[in-house]
Amino acid sequence: MARVILVFNKKVIKEYPFDKESMAIGRNEANDIVIDNLAVSSLHARIDKAGETYIITDLQSTNGTFVNNKQITAHKLQHKDKIVIGKHLLFFALSREEQAKVKKADIDKTMILDTSKQKELLARNADKDVKKERIGVINFIDGSGEGEIQLIKKLTKIGKADTSEIRLGGLFMPATAATISRRPNGYAITATGGRTKVKVNDQVIKESYFLKDFDTIEIGSYKFQFYIQGSEDEK
Amino acid sequence: MKIKAAGFSDTGVKRDSNEDALAVDDSIGLYIVADGMGGHLAGEVASNVAVNIIQKNVNHWVTNNSSEDNIFDFPDSALSRRGNYILSSIKLANRVIHEMSNEYEEYKGMGTTIVVLSIMPSTVIAANVGDSRIYLIRENTIETLSKEHSLVSEQLEMGLISKEEAETSPLRHMLTRNLGSSDTVNADVFEIKPMNNDRFLLCTDGLTDLVSKDEILEIVKNGDDPENLCQQLVSEAKKRGGHDNITVSLIFADEIDDKMPGLIKKFRYLFKK
Fold first, then answer.
1. What is the ipTM of this complex?
2. Which of A184, B9, B244, B266 has the most other CB atoms within 10 Å of its CB?
3. Distance CA A96, CA A93 (A)
């Protein structure tokens, strides 16, 4: 049986099994899938089952229905299609048996998505990257008045050297005391040796440490706090 | 800085030809692995073209210390100069493969993944497009330094499927980005500071489909000869079916701090004048 998964703000709100011939989507309580949001029309769209296929139809809604980022009036749904209504995401999924009927392709082979679909994905990826990339910030909390520094570089060097992104003074400050790098799983601080100790939350770090929100960093007599700046929902 | 590096590619057990390509260039510390795709030899062409273009151009720019204005496409201000060389060469390779595939019927639809690693004492740069991977083995840990551009990992990131579902999904080989299928491409580039005894592994999915991250860690940390370890990784994948081409490249970095203490450097500078 196919399923429709309602997602809002990256959280799954509810899963709806497709157990009838047709499912109505809208703000009105009488719908099968109720989305309580002003951007959604009272009867917004409908998904109909026609034999093996599922078709979504926009019911002349005010704000439109989008499938994989394209506005549609009617669209034949495929496994893993993403339907956007207002700010809500509806994820359409076929059951394993249904998928098996549709797909007989060689699963071991690496495939390239056909170009039109790939372009869409690329386009979506492009603006997702911009929105998704959350920037880490370190904030001087030792009263030196330097304020906030955004870690926009992939590798931020901290130390005495002129080439450092964050320059610190002090007699024993090495050219590079620490680096902070943006990695696939977050920001990591690395102590690069030298006489100056690098501490995170009062613990001396020897090598790398993945920073979490509101960790305090101490390098010599300098003290900072790290946090990830605002999520995309703020804007 | 001391570098020991090796690379090894194997057709595997089930395929007739090897569509992977690799380059090990110790002169500037540049390592590249590519996994080509597309029917009848086209995959082989795509991966080899990509590796050649990236190696040649990065070499050229490094030798001339080219400014960011003189490289292909716009530089990314978040990256170091070397990081921009790598990013730019990947974009250039993409453009060439894309144009070749439009020009010649036999190359239609070809593409390739790419992973590039560049090592300098100050910075290590890891860049990738597609589902080939870069791992960093440091002490007793293994960390992925590449981002997977596949439909499944995208869904995983969005929280639409679970990790288990991702591993068994029939769509797990569906790429959302590669070199060749679109006229522009963006690579994920990471820059980190190297530490003594860091080990880097570049590999294609022929390895990672069959040998898990933890198993890779076990193999790589228990040995000192990159050449030998590359062979071990490949034979492990072949033992388990070897359904795809397998390519691995291992780079060991050590004695990174060869810089002189700051004070002595300053004196030398004065004397030189």
1. 0.71
2. B244
3. 9
